[in-house]
Design brief:
16 helices; mainly alpha
């Protein structure tokens, strides 16, 4: 193994902590729809996703190279810069997990890295063409492409299975969901695990442990794969609830269409080195699948909060990363102060989350009631029996029976 200094070791451990948070933050991307439709039990689903994330980590290094070689000038980066970037990314992941919003761990990492790099070496150290071409444009395109593909696939699925036995059709699509969920998990490993590989490789270059333009060493690939798999297994149940039940109510056909569309987009982007947000892709496909079913609806209040979080991710993580880099510039005590702040903030967020526990036992409990737009659409186009319309009907109290005056009743007698 390369010569690792104490500071470099701290950076590597922090990077693996980020990878861990990435895993439980993004478990919903692969398994939320499978869990919400009952295709797999929650604990089985996250175990399967964890194993396939680990496998996916070994399939490619293109995205890792985009991070370590393309986004910033690796020759002018110090290990403290990487540490500050990771602080910004981890805190954003934890805050959005606490409120149950599926934001992008990838963009949190990119934002933290860009902010810390600018604070350390100026804007010239950031490669703007890579940031725009391989990060920002895919961020906009991914949910749109995945959403349209999922909408078309959902409509096609219902059309093809229109005359088939309902019970047999659901059973078949649930099997398809399990396969497509596995594909999303594999795709997640090929894309998101590589980001940590790239950031660790960048830290190794910055610390002089490996030569510039090096590919990630095997031990980096293995450790990143294990960290994201462990985080995935623990499951980010709050975000799984939002993705599986908070956006729309999915049937097996929709879940299959959403996952297949998202996996296709993610795998294609990994192949060409786009640092794509799996969260954006899966969220877009879930919304597309919700709109693709006749009578299907999307809870736009939840979707709006998600989009706001997406927009804030890069600048928020960049701001925290820049501030952390400024503090580390005061020397060893500054780096120590940032580390203590990270640990203390993480513990405070975890304690806050214990006030309302969400786990595999209550993950399918719908947390958010249907909004005004949802109710209006459902009233115009009632969904099939057993879906959202029943939930809406259940919220309307039955009319009270008319009361009869006893004296009037005696007069009639």
């Amino acid at each position: 193994m390369e010569h690792i200094t104490l500071l470099l070791g701290i950076v590597i451990v922090t990077a693996l902590v980020f990878d861990f948070t990435n895993g439980f933050h993004d478990t919903a991307n692969a398994m939320a729809t499978t869990i919400s439709t009952g295709a797999l039990k929650p604990k089985v689903a996250v175990a399967m996703s964890a194993a396939l994330n680990l496998v996916g980590a070994f399939l490619s290094v293109e995205v890792a190279n985009t991070i370590s070689k393309g986004l910033v000038d690796e020759t002018g980066i110090r290990p403290e810069v990487i540490f500050a970037a990771l602080v910004g990314a981890i805190l954003w992941n934890l805050v959005t997990w606490l409120v149950g919003l599926p934001s992008s761990s990838s963009h949190a990492l990119m934002g933290g890295l860009v902010g810390a790099t600018i604070a350390s070496a100026g804007t010239g150290a950031v490669h703007g063409d890579v940031l725009v071409g391989k990060v920002l444009l895919p961020a906009v395109a991914a949910p749109i492409v995945a959403g349209l593909a999922a909408m078309v696939a959902t409509r096609l699925s219902y059309k093809l299975s229109g005359g088939a036995d309902t019970k047999a059709t659901k059973k078949g699509y649930r099997a398809g969901q399990i396969a497509s969920a596995g594909l999303v998990s594999l795709a997640h490993g090929t894309n998101d695990a590589q980001k940590t590989m790239g950031i660790i490789t960048l830290a190794l270059v910055a610390g002089g442990a490996v030569a510039p333009d090096s590919d990630p060493p095997v031990w980096v690939i293995l450790s990143a794969g294990l960290a994201i798999a462990l985080g995935t297994y623990l499951g980010g149940w709050r975000i799984i609830r939002t993705m599986g039940k908070g956006l729309t109510d999915l049937q097996p056909q929709q879940g299959f269409a959403a996952q297949t569309s998202a996996a296709t987009v993610i795998l294609a982007s990994s192949h060409i080195g786009f640092s794509l947000s799996t969260t954006h892709s899966v969220s877009g496909s879930v919304m597309g699948a919700g709109l693709g079913r006749k009578g299907g609806v999307v809870r736009w209040s939840t979707a709006t909060r998600m989009v706001v979080a997406w927009v804030l991710t890069l600048p928020a993580a960049a701001l925290v990363g820049a501030l952390a880099e400024w503090v580390t510039g005061f020397g060893a005590w500054g780096t120590t102060l940032v580390a203590v702040f990270l640990v203390g903030s993480s513990f405070a967020i975890w304690r806050r989350s214990r006030r309302e526990v969400v786990d595999h036992n209550n993950v399918n409990d719908v947390e958010e009631p249907p909004g005004v737009v949802t109710q209006a659409i459902a009233a115009v186009t009632p969904p099939p029996a057993g879906t959202l319309s029943e939930g809406l009907t259940a919220t309307i109290p039955a009319p009270a029976e008319p009361t009869v005056n006893p004296s009037a009743q005696s007069r009639v007698a």
